[in-house]
Sequence to fold (184 residues):
Amino acid sequence: MKNQNLRRINYRFQIDANRINASGQLIYMNTLEQLKKNKVIRIMMAQPAQDEAAHGSRDRAKKAYGYIFTLTESRTQKEAELLKRIEGILFPQGAVNQNEKNDIEIVFNAWKYGCILVTSDGGSRRQPGGILGNRDKLIELGIEVLTDEEAVARIKRLILERDRLERENANITGKPLPEWVGRD
Fold:
């Protein structure tokens, strides 16, 4: 088990509803899901994202409810203030519908549970705002937001460094390399 713990990159991600990969067509999500399966990373969902993602088909529901979920439950003054600040960033005129309120909670949950939020919401010419379009303001609150492609690129860099260190350690100690080196 100790050897398996060395494999883990200490990154936790929360995925947005738009990253549910029920049909397996999202290539970067396929990579993230395999890394989760191999216990390299952790992936969770905020409850509003999970409930939103579960609509549409049985496959989507099965996929969404297969993730551990987190709850918003803002219990402190700091948390209540952060929810309002997130709302002000994402929806300066105020959240007017449930989807917008869900986005606020999804972003908040990433912060509350120390996760990087993975989404495709916003940041494009068609939708310049949204979550990705405001990530520079969200990072100021301590909330990091990435696309799934960016998340994979970061994890791949960390895996290369992890494997380099394992090889270096094996050269120094003479112990064999763990079987997972070079395979993630």
